Amino acid sequence: MVPTSHYLFLSLALFTIGVIGVVTRRNVIIILMSIELILNAVNINLVAFAHLWKQVSGQVFAIFIITDAAAEAAVGLGIIIAFFRNRETVLADEMDLLKW
Amino acid sequence: MLDLIFFYLFAALAVVSAVLVVTRRNAVHSAIFLITALLATAGIFLQLQAEFVFIVQIILYVGGIMVLFVFVIMLVNLDVALRQLQFNRGWLVGLVLAVALGAQLAYALFLGRTVQLTGAAGELKAENTEQVGQVLFQNYVLPFEIASILLLVAMIGAVVMAKKRL
Amino acid sequence: MNAIVEFFRPHLMPLIYALIIVVVLPLIAGYIVLLERKIMADMQARLGPMRVGPHGLLQPIADAVKLLIKEDIIPENADRWIFWLAPLLSVTAGMLALAAFAFGPGFQIADLNIGLLFILGVSSMGIFGIVLGGWASNSHYSLLGALRSSAQLVSYETAAGMAVVAGLLLAGTLSTRRIVEIQAEQGAWFVFLAPIAFFTYLVASIAETNRAPFDLPEAESELVAGYMTEYSGFRWALYFLAEYTNMVVVASVATTLFLGGWLRPLPNVKAFAFLDYVPALLMLLTAGYCFYRTPRQPTKVQQGFLVGVGLLCLLLGVVLFLPMLPLAFGGVEAPSLKPAIHGGFWFLLKVFAYMYVFMWLRFTVPRYRFDQLMKLGWHFLIPVAIVNVMGVGVALVLYRQMGWSLGVALTLTTLATLAVAAYLAVVGTRGEAATMGGAEGSA
After folding, report:
1. Are B55 and C118 a contacting pair at CB < 8 A?
2. pTM of the entire structure?
3. Which of A67, C98, C146, C302 has CB atoms 3.0–4.6 Å from C227's, for a disulfide?
4. Confidence class of residue C441 from pLDDT cuts 50, 70 and 90?
């Protein structure tokens, strides 16, 4: 029987690595992938608590999060494609059209 | 004993894959390591006796979202980007702050690691899929419908955004 | 030591089954290729492979040896690691899906609660093998073929999933073993209860496996074998193995869900119990035919081989007849052995019948153009599949809540779905004719 705190620490590790990816990388697609890592960490947290309290609500919430991640990934990648068509770049540092 | 071994296996795979996701130069390599991280997470779900979330993770995340990612990476693939800097100018600050955040959360978890959690305890009576279906369509039917409208909006938005000419 | 043995004992039989599948499947896939070439030849009024071994029966072994000793070429700027990984992903996804099937009442590697969904999910991971293979080849043809192929697979996956959902509504469970048992309890295969779902799944599964008439991404005259262009030797053999394994997987899904799995036709009707003799009879007839044709063979080797095949069929016929012996002589049924052996036979028969339909369509119908393919998938199959799910749901509500007869309710909703499908077919082609003609001037 694996104690719940193990799952919480794993979730924390994935969350931290995701946050590092979001604030450190330049490539926008890899930033999006790090966001997916963060969402997965949250899912592990929810499902671990669902297992602890023997309820399914946590799992239902996790399913909703997966659905939302799909929607967000689709729209985010659409934005990247539209931007790439205009500026030929996917690096976040070079997406500075509003600067004077 | 055996589930502890499996947990450490999946956890190690997930963490190593995650580290490789954020450090690879080539975006396709990052995508492949994200796939392994997602599969390891699915294994964790299976270990937590959440069969339906396991299979939804595989079908939607790995079979849907990651295919989308790989498509877009191929569409915007730039050889130039491979030879440029991978980390932005403020990477040290970002790293320190993220690690500080992680350390704070780890401390909070560490303090609470032996707390006996009490609360409304349910019961896993029926099969997991059946139970998830019942709860989803009885208690959470409104979020379900809103999620379907959200997906419709996202679909329309993505199509409009990626069109060449409106 | 004893503790270790006791620890592994419940996993022993599944491990043996898994080993059998992994070892035997490449051989079977090779012989399915030979079968396809023979059927192709039969439909084109010729003989097919005849040189290598009697009636070409050693052709797959010759092909395998040739592929193994070929030079392993990797394109110059290709990503070596992903180039190595891609065929592996396809083959692994295909073989993993075979773990959840129930080939007979006891023949199952893993009786998962989510069996059918597991199979669909793992099959959707096979798309990565195609996409990454095309990208890693660093070649235009490969990338285009890979993108087209995966776009096609993703589109028809939705339609296939909806068709499976319609069947699952009737079954009420995702476990493959329970689905067949429920079909036994109902007394009818689900194909008779949800025929539209079966035909939608048939069309969608042909597109899922990149078979003709949906094989544009890998047709030789179009994109030079698409994503497989730069793969040679054993890597190409792995892709081919993956394709035929996928064929077996979709045939097994259709068999489990719609065609009654390991049940004989009309499983519960006692009057048709004579159908239980059909497997043994079939094998004995095949053996008799082999022995009948033996004297006419030109060479001694071919005669000897045909006698060998005949003896094999005779042995199988005897094995299939043995569990029926007490019944034939007025005794009671031997409960444990008959369902297993006969079940395996019926399952394989249905899988091969489904694949025969695949091959039949390949050599009869011309290829779809890619935009026609996508239009068919999105404008016709997915709406029909969704309306079918709603129809089956309405029929079940009428049956369970309002007490109608299941047959009447299902017939009504099937007719309604057919009306919607007919409307879509007529209106869809009318719109296409208008834009093709250009007279309407719509953008």
Report:
1. yes
2. 0.90
3. C146
4. very low
